[in-house]
Each structure stands twice: as structure tokens, then as C-alpha cells.
Amino acid sequence: MPDTLKITLAQLNQSVGDIPGNAEGVLAARKQAAGSDLIVFPELHLVGYPPEDLILKPSLIERAAAELQTLAKASASAGPAMLVGTAIVLDGALHNAVALLDQGKVAAVRLKHELPNYGTFDEMRLFQPGPLPEPIILRGTMIGVPICEDIWRPEVCRHLADFGAEIFICINGSPYEINKDALRIEGVAKRRAVDTGLPLAYLNRVGGQDELAFDGASFVVNGDGGLAVQLRDWEEQVVQTNWTKTAQGWRCDRGQLETLAEHPEDIYCAMVLALRDYVNRNGFPGVVLGLSGGIDSAACAAIAVDALGAERVWGVMMPSRFTSQASLDDAAACAKALGIRYTVMPIGSAVDGFDSMLGEVFDGTNRGLAEENLQSRVRGTALMALSNKFGPMLMTTGNKSEMSVGYATIYGDMAGGYNPLKDAYKTTVFAISRWRNRHVPRIGLGPEGTVIPERILTKAPTAELRDNQRDSDSLPPYDVLDPILLGLVEHDKSVEQVVAEGFDRATVEHVERLLHLAEYKRRQAPPGVKLTARNFGRDRRYPITHAFRSGGEVSDAPLGTSRSSST
Fold first, then answer.
1. Would you say 186 and 148 are in contact if contact means Cβ atoms under 8 Å apart?
2. Which of 149, 479, 492, 542 is the most buried (most CB within 10 A)?
3. Considering 67, 112, 177, 235, which one is annotated as catalytic?
4. Is the same domain home to 242 and 315?
5. Does 434 share its domain with 504?
6. Could you say which of 67, 114, 123, 148 is catalytic?
7. Is residue 57 annotated as a catalytic residue, yes or no?
8. Are residues 120 and 234 in the same domain?
9. d(Cα 416, Cα 383) in Å, to the nearest integer?
10. CATH code of the domain containing 246
């Protein structure tokens, strides 16, 4: 029996449904890992994670099974054995599985036991749970291979240890959330290692998949809880780890210990990587966005440049008669600093045309939100026309604070294909913008220096849909609004609980009412990268029509009617 092992961790990106492409990546990484005993790939790597209901197509499962056999045959050639995540049908049941490919065959298969069914996860809808797994044997060593959720509860690792496991290798598809690194390492992996006295290698995928960003950040902890290896976050890496068998059991030798992105760089990187993979894998040549001279569109433009390069980003300023010269100057300065294509396209004539068309019907009414929101809807139509004509994806720019309370124009500034700020509160947008002016992210393609003009960061936010308009005319200041939303949205607190934290009751009740009334808008919003534990859509799923108010107030507006806070 060997007293050393070389195990390569393949922290790779993957494309859902691209089984041949994912398999090609497996073989390329195996070639890179020459000299290792084993190379490990992330959860469901062969089919891509998360596959959602695509995994229910029999033809996809058949194709994955055939490709797995091809990979198994390849394991007969010189090189390491492979531990590959895939989906497998056994006895008529579909399973989330990991397969050991060695010496030209599928040497072992183990099935995921714990199927998560919360937040972004719907695995009980897709898979059947496997039995408590037993270790696999590789080069005379008993290796436990729990799959992702299997280590979040102690039963699986305890069972594997009782059956003689000497090392844990856990493959994962763990989406990024703020502060999740510490939870994975300190809250889960170290506990399983210390509880059993066994080392644990944690391999996570990297890349974007629709609304999810995967940060990688794979690592190894030894049985005493010590961190032996830490891979980078937000980048692909294929890293060999070296293991030694001692009198106390197996230990991973100290290897590379990368420093992970700190806050708010981690948020910014999630936005960049998610947008990059979304645009590229959906075949768009680039993106187009409205550049208003405000903080949200400026931040989105910077994210897009870091994701795609300046040559693939098109900013369009669409002034109306309410647009200030400062906004025109700030939008132009931002475009110049980022080096993007920039077009000024006034919308006055289009707005006048709608006013004329609607004049007879609107006659005798006061000018209000309907007329204001025409400007936003004209802009949305114009940007979609550019997208249709020239091919770039229209990127929307609304933040989570605005979307929480409906401060967005449906069929206007909500029109588009993707929104990197969807799960970022306004105060977060300011934080990442200030950070980006001082730093270039490791994965970024944009320029150094100030890319968001200082005046954009310091002026009062405004939609400029009427004279002297400010966001604060309709909403509490963002440094008040965001903490209230944090309580109501992220922690599902009641009005009473939020008020007890020192906030004005009338303000909290008003915000809660707006939050519930805007649900129908959020259902029609484009996708955007998940950053928090309670993003709209995947995590927080509320009915559109309901009358509950935790503060006791019942809405006086008919549920389902159009309620528009302008932006």
C-alpha cells in the first residue's frame, strides 16, 4: 500500500448541457495532471450544474451515459484515475452521482444521499436520494466521496468514517453568497474533519450559470482542522495536492494558500463572471445599456467592461428635456474613462409623439406618473431596437433597493436580458463603485484608475423624469431604506421587529407595503446574479396576490393593478 498520494483538484468552469465540451475539458485537465494518482472534477460536471429540468430529458441522460463510458475507456491510458460528477439512472431512478473511472472502466459509482430542497436548490424534484454511501478503494486507500450537501449534515461523513474511510473528497456545485467562504470552511468542512479525524478535500466549480455565480475557492483541511491548501476564487485552476500517510493517518501536505477576494471585491467578481458567462454562452456579441449619468448605469458599464472588454460594450445616453447638463457630462466622462462606444440619442421627439397620440384620451387629467414613465418606456423601446438591429444584449441596471419597492418602470428601464445589480442594494452599488475606482479585479478586463466619475458618486440619485426630481422624494434615504429591506427581505422580520431596531414605524410599514405590491413587477424582471441568501426569484418566492401585512395594515390598492413608482 502506498504511503503517498497525489490528488489533483480540477476547479473548472462548465457549460450546462454541453456534454461533449465538458468531457473535452475533463480529458484536457487529466493530461495536465500527469503524474497524479487521481484527478477530481466538480458535482455534475459532465452535464453541468445546475441542470434544472433539463436533466429530466431522457436523451440528455443517454448522452451523458455514453460520454461517461468514453471517458472510462480513456482512463486505460497513462494518467490518473478520474472522479467525475454526473447524473446516472440506476434501477429506473435518476441520481446525482460521482463515478470513479480507472483502468478503462467505471470502477465505482456513489450516489448523493442528502438532496437539498431550499433556496436555489430543487434536487428533490429531480433526483432520488441514494443510500448512505460506502467508501471507494483507490490504490489501496479507502476514500469517502460525499457529494456537496452530504457534508452539511454529519450523518454521511460519520457513516463513511465508520465504514473505514481514510480521506474525504467532496465534490460541489456551491453557489456564491456573501460570507459563504467562512461558512463552508469553518462551519462545515472543519467540523466534519475534526469530528471524524479525517482530512477533507472540498472541490467546487467556478463560473456563471444564469442567476448563479460559482466562486470555486476549493480547499483542503486536515483531520485536525488545519487548512492545508486554498485555491483561488473566481478562476479555473488545476492544482495537484500531495498526501502522506503517517502513523495517525493521511494528511495533506501544505500547498498553495491563496488569499480570497475580500468584500466588496467578491461581490464585484460575482457580477463580472456571471455576466461574462451569460453573454458568451448565449452567443451575444456584446451588450448595450442606457448610460444616464447615474451611479447604477455607471457601475453596470464598469462591470460589463471588466466582463467583456471595452470593445464589446455600448453605452447610450438618451436625454429628455428633464436631463441635466451634469448628467450629460457625467455619462460622457464615464464612457470615456471606460473606453466604450458612446452614443447620444435624444428621445424628445418620441416622447412628444406619444404625448400627442395620448392627448385626446388624457385630456382633462393632471400630468403624473403615466406621462413621466413614458420617457422610461421610450428609452426601453429604443434600446431594444438597437439590440434587435445590431445584436448586443440589452443590459438593465436597476438595483435591489429599487426593485424591492417597485421604484422601476415595467416595460421601461426593466426591459432587457440581464441585470448584474439585481441582487445588490443601493448602498452596495456605491461600495463596489468606490472599490472599482481604486482597484482592477483579478479577473477584470477593464482599465485602471477612476472609471466612475466622482460626481456620480456624490450627487443625489435621481431618475430625472420631472423637474428637480430626487429619489428621496418617493423613498427614504438609502442608508435608511436598505437596513429596513435587509430586515424585511433577507431575514423575514416583521414590522415590529424592524421597528424595535430603531426605525420609524410609519416608514417601515410603508416600505413593507411597497415590497409586497411590487411582486408582480419582479416576476417580469430579467435575471441577474445572486449575491445574497434571499435573492428575488430563486430564494424568495412570494405570491403576487395576498393581503398579509405584518404591521397589520391592509392595502387599499386592488391587488394586481399597476402600481408604478417612477424611475
1. no
2. 149
3. 112
4. no
5. yes
6. 148
7. no
8. yes
9. 9
10. 3.60.110.10
Quick one: 81 and 52 in the same domain?
yes
Let me know if 148 is a catalytic residue: yes
Annotated binding site for L-glutamine: 118, 174, 180
Instruction: Please give the annotated binding residues for ATP, written as ranges.
Output: 290-297, 397
Domain end point (choices 215, 239, 260): 260
User: What is the tally of structural domains in the chain?
Assistant: 2
User: Do 305 and 411 belong together in one domain?
Assistant: yes
DSSP-derived secondary structure for 492-559: ---HHHHHTTT--HHHHHHHHHHHHHTHHHHTTSPP----STT-BTTTB---SS----TTS---SSPT
| pLDDT values of the chain reduced to their tens digit, one per residue, 567 residues | 679 999 999 999 999 999 999 999 999 999 999 999 999 999 999 999 999 999 999 999 999 999 999 999 999 999 999 999 999 999 999 999 999 999 999 999 999 999 998 888 889 999 999 999 999 999 999 999 999 999 999 999 999 999 999 999 999 999 999 999 889 999 999 999 999 999 999 999 999 999 999 999 999 999 999 999 999 999 999 999 999 999 999 999 999 999 999 999 999 999 999 999 999 999 999 999 999 999 999 999 999 999 999 999 999 999 999 999 999 999 999 999 999 999 999 999 999 999 999 999 999 999 998 999 999 999 999 999 999 999 999 999 999 999 999 999 999 999 999 999 999 999 999 999 999 999 999 999 999 999 999 999 999 887 767 777 777 778 899 999 999 999 999 999 999 999 999 999 999 999 999 999 999 999 999 999 999 999 998 888 888 888 888 876 554 443 333 334 444
Q: Is residue 531 part of a domain?
A: no
Residues forming the annotated binding site for deamido-NAD(+)?
373, 402, 521
Set 43, 123, 166, 464: catalytic member: 43
> Using CA atoms, how far apart are residues 206 and 13, in angstroms rounded to an integer?
5
